[in-house]
Every structure is written in C-alpha cells, then in structure tokens.
Amino acid sequence: MKVGVQINERELELEVATNSTLIDLLREDLGLRGTVEGCGVGVCGSCTVLVDGRPVSSCLVLAADVDGRVVTTIEGLGRNGALDPVQEAFLEHQAFQCGYCTAGMIMAVKGLLAENPRPSAAEAKDYLSGNICRCGTYEEVLGAVATAAASSDGGGD
Amino acid sequence: MTAIGTSVARADGPLKVTGQVQYTVDTQLPGMLHAKVLRSPYPHARVLAVDATAAAARPGVVVLTAADLTNLDHAFGVALRDQPIVAIDRVRFVGDPVAAVAADTPEAAEAALEFIDVEYEPLETVMDPEAAAADDAPVLHPVERPRAPMFVGWPAERFRGSLNVCSGYHVEQGDLDAGFASADHVFEDTYRVPPIHHGNLEPHAAVASWDHRGHLNVISSTQSPSIVRLQLAEIFGLTENQVRVVVPYVGGAYGSKVYAKIEPLVAAIARKAGRPVRLVLTREEVFATAARHACTVHIRTGVRNDGTIVAREVRAFYDTGAYADTGPRASKKGGYLAGGPYRIEHQSLTSYCVYTNKAPAVAYRGFGVPQVVWAYESQMDDIAARLAIDPLELRRRNLIRDGDTFVTGDVLRNPGLDEALEAVAEAGDWGSPVPEARPGFAIGRGVACAIKSTSTPSNSAASVRLNADGSVHLLTSSVEIGQGSTTALAQVIAETLSIPVSRVTVSLPDTDVTPFDQSTISSRTTFSVGRAATDAAAKIRQQLMSLAASQLEAAVTDLDVDEGSVFVRGSRDRSLTFAEIIRRHFGSPAGSLFGDSVFQTRGGLDPLTGKGKASATWFYSAAAAEVEVDLETGKARVLRIATSADVGKAINPAQCHLQNEGSMLTALGSALFEEVVYDAGQPTNSSFLDYGMPSLEDHPLEFHSILVEHPSEDGPFGARGVGESVISPVAPAIGNAVAAALGGARVRELPISPERVLAAVDQQPEARA
Amino acid sequence: MQPFELLQPRTLEDALDRLADDEEARPLAGGTALVVLMKHALLRPERLVNLKRIPALQGIDWSSETGLRIGALTTIREVEQHQAVRTWFPALAEACHVVANVRIRNLATLGGNLAHADYQSDPPAMLIALGARVRIRSVSGEREEPLETFLVSGYQTTLEPGELVTDILVPPPTAGRRMQYLKFTTRSAEDRPCVGVAVSLGLEGTACRDLRVVVGAVSSTPVRVAEGEELATGKVLTPDLIDEIAGRAASAVDPIGDVRGSPEYKRRLVQVLVRRSLLGSVTEVSA
Ligand SMILES: Cc1cc2nc3c(=O)[nH]c(=O)nc-3n(C[C@H](O)[C@H](O)[C@H](O)COP(=O)(O)OP(=O)(O)OC[C@H]3O[C@@H](n4cnc5c(N)ncnc54)[C@H](O)[C@@H]3O)c2cc1C
Description:
The complex is a heterotrimer of chains A (157), B (769) and C (287).
Chain A: E1 2-7, E2 10-15, H1 22-29, E3 48-51, E4 54-57, E5 70-72, H2 85-93, H3 102-115, H4 121-128, H5 138-150
Helix pairs in contact in A: 2-5
Chain B: H1 13-18, E1 33-39, E2 45-51, H2 53-56, E3 62-64, E4 90-91, E5 97-103, H3 106-113, E6 117-122, H4 129-133, E7 165-173, H5 176-181, E8 185-193, E9 205-210, E10 216-220, H6 225-236, E11 243-246, H7 263-273, E12 277-280, H8 283-287, E13 294-303, E14 309-321, H9 327-336, E15 346-355, H10 369-387, H11 391-398, H12 417-427, E16 441-453, E17 458-466, E18 472-475, H13 485-497, E19 504-506, H14 525-552, E20 559-562, E21 565-568, E22 571-577, H15 578-586, E23 593-601, E24 604-605, E25 612-613, E26 618-630, E27 636-646, H16 653-672, E28 678-679, E29 682-683, E30 702-708, H17 727-741, H18 754-763
Parallel strand pairs in B: 1-12, 10-11, 14-15, 18-19, 27-30
Antiparallel strand pairs in B: 1-5, 2-4, 2-6, 3-5, 7-15, 8-13, 9-10, 9-12, 13-14, 16-26, 17-18, 17-23, 20-21, 21-22, 24-25, 26-27, 28-29
Helix pairs in contact in B: 9-10, 10-17, 13-14, 14-15, 16-17
Chain C: E1 5-7, H1 12-21, E2 26-28, H2 34-39, E3 47-50, E4 60-63, E5 67-71, H3 76-81, H4 83-88, H5 90-97, H6 102-107, H7 110-116, H8 123-129, E6 133-138, E7 141-146, H9 147-150, E8 151-153, E9 156-157, E10 164-170, E11 178-184, E12 195-204, E13 207-216, E14 223-224, H10 226-232, H11 239-252, H12 263-286
Parallel strand pairs in C: 1-3, 2-3
Antiparallel strand pairs in C: 4-5, 5-10, 6-7, 6-10, 8-9, 11-12, 12-13, 13-14
Helix pairs in contact in C: 10-11, 11-12
Bound molecules: flavin-adenine dinucleotide.
C-alpha cells in the first residue's frame, strides 16, 4: 500500500507491504541500517526512532502507520556534517561500548530533551530506563544527557 | 609519550554514535537468500522421520535436513564433536535444529517451515545436572563423541555416573581427612546457580557463500574467527586457506558468540543453495543457542577457631545443556578455582560437566568461575558469623600472597588482591555503622573477592604495517565486541612507536588477511594480542632505527624514537621523520614496512593430576555492596556497590571502568532476578517480555569502580586484563549484604528473588528483628 | 508476520461496517500486543481494521459534572500526561506512567490495553477502583458497561465480534478523594507487574464513606476486595482495620503462578501491598 512519509527531512512516497514494520521499511527498503533490532517485542529499545518527535519501538510499528508522519532516525541527526550535541555528548562521555543500543539510546535522549530540556537525573533515569544496554554503560549515558542538556542549544531541537 | 594510561577517545566512536557502524546483521550480498530454522518442540525425542518434500516443492525454497549431510561428519564442538548441524536421529532440547530453509525473504522461509513434517518419539528428559550424572539417568548421547583436536581432555570415565558426564576435572593437595580432622568447625552447604541469558543485543548472525573455487566465505558475528575457520574447514573437509571468515563490529557477545554456533548450518545450506545465505536469529533462538552454565556446588570447609581455613572439598556439577560446547573447559576452570583465592592446606576440588535437556550452555563472561565464587564467598560469611570474626578480617587472614603456590601448582606473582579488597572496603565504608533503615526495611553490607585465570596455552599473532606517511595499521583477528580493543591496541602501538594514537588503525578480522588469534575471550585481548602488537611494533621501530642509522650516519645504539621521528640522542636536530626514512629507503614516498609477532603462552594442566600451569596471568577482583531489604516483600535493592580489579596496568582507564560497570550490572542481574526458567523441559521465558535485564533504574544508586595496578610479567606495559574480573565477586557481595541485613538468614540459590528472601526470613524468624 | 489485508477507515461508522462485514477481522489500535502476537504467529488474522485514523476515537475530555471521557485510541502516554488526568486522577496518571517504557506508552492505547485484557496490566485495576465504564459500539448500537464486568478473564472480555470499545468513562471524583496505585515488580524495574494495588477512598470527616480496593495482575482479572470495602464503610481506617482489610484482600485473590512469583508469594504480597496502600492513603488524610 502507498505511504507518504517524511523521513529525516525527506518527503517520500513509498509502496509498503501491510505486514512490513517500520524497522523493515527503514533497514530493508531505505537502507537506513543505523536502526537495529534487538528483541522484536519493544523491550530493549535498540530500534528506537522518533515518530512525530516521540520515541517509539520501530519493531512494533506497521510501516503503513507512518503515512502522513515525520520519522527521524539516527541518520537524520546532525546538520551540515556536524554531529548533533547529543552525539557529541555520547562521544565525550564514552557512553557506549558495543554500540548496538547506541542509536536507539541517542534517539531516546533526543525524545527526552525535546520534552524536557533540563531533566533531573531522576527524570532522565525514568525516561531512559526502557533502553537496555547490556554492556552496562548507564552512568555514562546519564553524564551525556547532562552535558547535552547543558550545551547551548540544549540538544533538544 | 602518554598513549598508555590515558582514556583516549574510542576509535569506533564516530561510527557508533552516527549509526554508520556495520554489524553482521547489516550484511547484504547480491542474490542473498534468508534462512530460517525448524526447531524441536520436544526437550528430548527420537526423530523418526523428516519429510521436507512439500517445503522443497515451494518456489524458490531450499531445504536442508540431515539427509543432505550424510557424507559429512558434521557434528561439531570445540571440546567434543557432539553437536550436529541439524538433528540426525535425536533432538535433545527445545530449540534443537531439525531442518533449515532458505528463501528469498525471511517471511517466505518462515512460511516454508510449516511444510516440513517431522515425526518424533518423545523420550524421558533430565533437567538437573546432578540427577543427570547418576547412573540411572536417561542418556542424551548414547555413543561417546570424539574429542576435538584442540581439546586436552581428561578421561570422563573417572567421573561417571552416567554417560551424561561428558567431562570432569579433579585436583587435590594435602590430606583432606587430616585437614578436616584438624578443623574446629566444619561448614557444609549446597549452592545453586540457574542458567542465565547473555543478552547480547545483536543476535547471532552469519552470512555464508561458496565461490567457484570451492572456497567458503563467511561473515559472522563470532568472537572466534580463527577457530571458526578451523571448525568449518574440519566439517567441510577444506584447508584453512579455503575458508574465509570476516567479522564486522559485534553488537555484544559476552561469550555467547565464542566458537562455531550457527556458522556450520549457514554454510551447509548455502552450499546446497549455491547462493549466499544469511541467518539472523530471533531472540527466542538466541535463548536456544546459548546460556550460562547452571551449576550445583557442594562445598565443605574446615576452619580453625582463629579463622584459618584448613580444608576444603568442592564438588561442582556444571549443567552444559544438550551439547558440550565449552562446558568441559568452563567446568575445568571453575573446578580448579573452586577453592578461592585462599591459602588452604588441604583441598579436593572436583567438577563434572553434565548433559541435560536444556539449551547448550556456552562461554559466558566469567567462564565457569562466578558459579563457584557464589558458593565459596557466601559460605565465607557464614564462617565469619559463626566464628564472630569480621568478614573482611577473615578474608585477610586467609588470602593468598605474593609467591604462594596455587592448588594447580602455579606460583602467583604480585597479586593485587589484598589491595583490591581493601579498596572496596574503604569505598564501601566497611567498618563504619550501617545507615539506619526505614521501618520495615533492613540494610546490610557484604564483601567478596575472587580470582580468575586466562585460557592457557594460547597464542595471538599481530602484524603491524607502517605506511609511507608514518601512519600504521595493525592486522589482527581480535574482535571488537565493544570492549574497546581497537582503541587499546592502537594505544600500545602508538606508545611503542611514539606516535599519536590517531595515526594507528586497527583492523577487524578477515582471516584471509589477518593472522591467527585464539579468540576474543578470557580477558586476553589486551594481554595477548596487546603483547603481540607491542612486539610487532617494536620490530618496526628496530627497522626504522637501522634504516635511520645509515641515513643519519649514526650508530643504532645512539638513536632514539620520539614523536614519529628517529633522532640522534643528544642532538635533536639530527632527526628524520618516519615518512622521511621510508622515502629515502624506497626512493619515493611510497611503500611499507612490516613487523610480525606471535605471543604464545605455555602451560596447561595434566589431565590425570589436574596440576601444571593453569594460567599465564591472573585476575583479582573484589566487591563491596550495601543493600536495602524490604522485610515484608523480600525485595532487595542495591544502594551502593564498589568494585575493584587488578588490571595490571590500565591502558585506557575509562574503558577499564566500563568493563567493571558492565560486569557489575550483569552480575547484579544474575544476583537478583535473572534466570532462564524451564517447566517440564520447556523454556518459559525466552523473550525479553519475560526475561528482564538490569535497566537504568536497577543501577545501584552509587557505584565505584577502582583499578588496582599490580603489573603482570608478560602483558604489554604490565597489563593483565579486565573484561571478566568484577563479574564474580558482585553476586556474593550482594548475597552477603542481604544475609547481613537479615541477621544471617541466607539465600543459597540464585537469583536472590524476593520470594527466596522471604523464605529465608521465615526459616530464621529472628532475622525479622 | 504473515501477510494480511489492512483496512483504513476514517470514520467510526465505516470501521463498524467493516467489522460487521467480516467477523474474523481484527481491530488494530497501537499494535503493541497485536503485532507481537502476529510476529510469533500466535494470531494470524487475514484482515485488520486500523482504528488510528478515526478522530471520534481520539482525545480526552473532562467536565466536573460528567467526569472524564478518554477516547479508546488515546495512547497511554497521552493519558499519563493529560492535565485533567493529573489534576483529578493522579493515581490513574501513575498507573499509566508505570506501564512498560515510554516507547510503548507512545504507541499503546488505553482501549487496546483493556480490550486485550492481559492480566499482567496496570491501568485496569486503577480504572475499576475509580468506577470506570467502557462505552462499546457496533453497527447495531451502543452499550455501556462497568469495566469490572467487561473483563471476564485472561484475554477475555464481553466484546462480541463487530464491537469496538469507543470510550473509557471515569466519573468525577468526590471532593477530597484519596487514590493510590502501587505497582510491584519482582525482577527488573522494567518488568510487568507481579502485583498492582489500586485504592480509591472517599471520606466523610476522618471516616471512610466509600472505599474501593482492587488487586491487579494477580488473578485472571483485577479483583475487587468487596468484603474489605464493606468493612471500611463508615469507619475510621485504623491500623487494625487496615490489617483486616488486607487479610480479606489476600483471601479474595486466586493468584496465578508465573515467572514473577508463585501463587503463595503473590497472596502474601497482596496483603502487604494493600496494607501499605491503605496506610498511605490514611496518612495522606491526617497530613
Ligand atoms: C514491552 C511491553 C511491556 C509492557 N508492559 C506493560 C506493563 O508494565 N503494564 C501494562 O499494563 N501493560 C504492559 N504492556 C501491555 C500494553 O499495555 C498493551 O500491549 C497495550 O496497552 C495494548 O494496546 P494497543 O493499543 O497496543 O493494542 P493492540 O495491540 O492494537 O490491540 C490489542 C487487542 O485489543 C483489540 N483492540 C484494540 N483496540 C480495541 C478497541 N478499541 N475495541 C475493541 N478491541 C480493540 C485488538 O484487536 C487486539 O486484540 C506491555 C507491552 C509491551 C509490548
């Protein structure tokens, strides 16, 4: 079926199968492989992307349901070759190890800062707790959130 | 130079924060098919017939069954070759592969699976390792399987019981009976650990293709490219040059991807299809592919009134699941480390590796050691309580010291254990009053420490290439699984050559190009590959010096290297950059220099005595925990944890701390709630919906990671290794804190679930006070 | 996931027609339950009727006379964040906040949660404690039913084929009403509930005018502790009385054993958590 969607600021008209999920659309149809799947049931958060600015598990969203929506993936962050402040903060705090959760974690942080540009540590924990990092790089993620929030533009654009 | 001991930025950072990083799951090859696996719904059954005719008749579908493999001895395994690519005549756990299908899309492959008919005859199952070891247990492998050439095995017959005991290990010293006779107190307990899931977020994935030379090309998420190449060559009757294994970045492994897992199956179906085939496991399948060994540990300890441990007997039953995989080796390691990091005159340590109808247990961060540490460090606090000796003090009195001989015969040099223990005690405010708990709650503190060894003998090769502009490539088959190897290895080379870390690029494995490395396991990469890389870089340095000697007309002995240049000591103006040396040497700014090195550790344990040289280096660690227990619900919450590890030398302190944080969190999950649950042979929580792992909200409110640096003899710049150190002491430290909070009531089976805590309180009502 | 036909009605009437045409067609809301089931081939519907594009099913309205109307397709996150919900039903905001993670709450709908009727859920117990009703429509008309009777057992409701939940209705709270939702997890903080306890307490001075205690996630449907509620009516909730109500709660439930706890343990927890919720509500009163 036909889907008109804006993905990373590009307007796209796509033909998708009804039984295809948003992550299938991103990875298989569009080659946006920065978004990865970990559990397929909405628990781990590796596949987090923003739909209309809010984080969702792209493994549970039907591709057909992004018709008319705005989708942002990790590939859509940063401008003119410069990294997004959240990405910079992740680098600064070494807030990743194997990296498999990282794209999803960064997108969740984008969602957090968009809603709450100056989150307390408790608020950040509450919001991000659903993004699992088995390497255990949690303190560094919280550090990155604090840095990104403090950076001049708040990182929450 | 300051490349060593500096938390330089990770080499892979820009790839990982932008999503540009490539994992095996991202692989796409032209004409690639997708595979799905038909798996056994029974924990144990005879396979009477597999009829795949209807599936094979579907358009574009290729089916693989055991009938396609009759000309191969396709059973594989790094210790015992007992695991067939697909079931031959029997399935041994729920999830055992029976057939596989490849098709244009994963959906088409999945749909085709339903057209395969399998006739099973259910067999009696056995789920408990100790029951499985008994001589009347149902047997999983009625015919003993051949040993893999790499495995130095011991005669399993000595340890039987039933044929389910596929391996065993025993070591002793002193006279156990005399030891116990001289003890004032004897403690005898049983500790249990369930299977747990690795939680590697990137599932196992592999892509295989065969080319017209008959060569097999595999892209895989494995931690062991060199060994997987060997195993594939062995299965398919190829020579090593005919198999190529490429490993992109790996999205988490923790042991789950050590040695061949899905690669043989993918290679087999690709061979039949004549096209590239990709298999990416679903989460449920990851549960069916790997787990940590469940274990039952019987531990008996004799102690004198002054706290001296005089005798210890341990019998540990490791549940390796349906196939041996690394079980014989993990149980061996757990076996000789079961006495703990203590001077104990009389010891008898035995471990059994036993088949049961569970998913295969494989390598897991800690490799068989956390199971026994859980037992001996928990019991240690019971001893302390009975003897009214402070738990920290009791450990101090018994700790191994520099120059001590371990039960295996190894002499321990410069162990940083006492320092590690004192450091966590201090960070955890040991000895100061425990904060007052809210009404209905209790707070307790616990400490624990541990010793672990590394896989020995083993070897790693490194090839360092100096480019014409003075930049460097390291070719290595070590795998970037997130531990930061591509950064740390660049650091040791940068240090050796006195160049900026940014001038060094570390390869990912490609066995057509990169030299042998045993595996990315056993906390050995910085130690072994790091040493090989350092030595290889030193050879480049030597070449540069001798070239420069003639170019500068100076004696090599008068030269030194700094900031990418060779100079004459005492007159810095007589210097040449690496680029200039190469330009002069080749007469053009093009070309390269090579330095190769192999680092080899020697040793191993004698199969009959259990003695010899167990390890090329040793890892020491400790943890202190403060835990709040809800006395009415039994729920324990970790308030604070301090961990410490003797890393020898921290090449990159930030990465060392991350290893500690990760080990701590995995251990915390295993301590409090992680467990793969089986009900009548069926796994009941093989999904993240039902298997929880620690989240940000589960992180201790306060966490300290302390690095102790007692240099090793052989590691680069004194490094030992850090990947697994902290995982062992954390669970018993938490357990000891819970017991302290409860006035001694102790949970002896992991996880320390709220329900078990309440049961312990019920059995010891005074604990409520 | 097996292929299926996806219908995208824009009006409620159209959706109801589609459902009436094909008894096997399944409504699709947030998909967080349905897509998981379909991915695992536990459900293989041939036709889905997507409810997301129907404006009539969206939105939250509040009036002090009629209370709260929550459109069935409202996401759990919207409920949790809605100003009227936070002001008038803070415990409902809490019961929604503790559902899953923020990504799921951004997708999952309140109507889907109720229609799916998974026993390990948070919002239903709280909604029952608040006396919520569900409005249901089909081509043949509209009906309303208390949520309490709508939930029949695990994964079972009174919904007939062709019927849709259109709204969730919560009566306005009486002045000074106390309410609490307590979610208890036995494993990771991210886990589904082992036990959830919802309390809604109306007061007359310091005495209890009416009390609702509902235990969720333990039995196949949320359990109202009716005996305990009656005991409380007209009385001051002393610690002894609270203990007695908690005891009634423990005997009222018929716990399901699962990976989150055995039946015996859950029963014990119910007693502890009901006592804590009531003590919490009462302390709030005296404070
Ligand atoms: C990772 C994860 C964690 C979770 N944790 C929790 C938790 O902690 N607590 C908790 O309470 N829940 C939890 N849930 C469950 C979650 O709340 C439900 O999946 C969700 O609310 C279902 O709503 P939906 O809109 O996604 O429904 P869908 O998946 O779209 O539909 C579910 C079912 O309801 C039917 N249906 C949907 N809407 C209607 C309607 N308006 N009328 C009639 N029938 C309808 C569908 O046909 C389907 O059968 C969790 C779920 C996930 C995936």
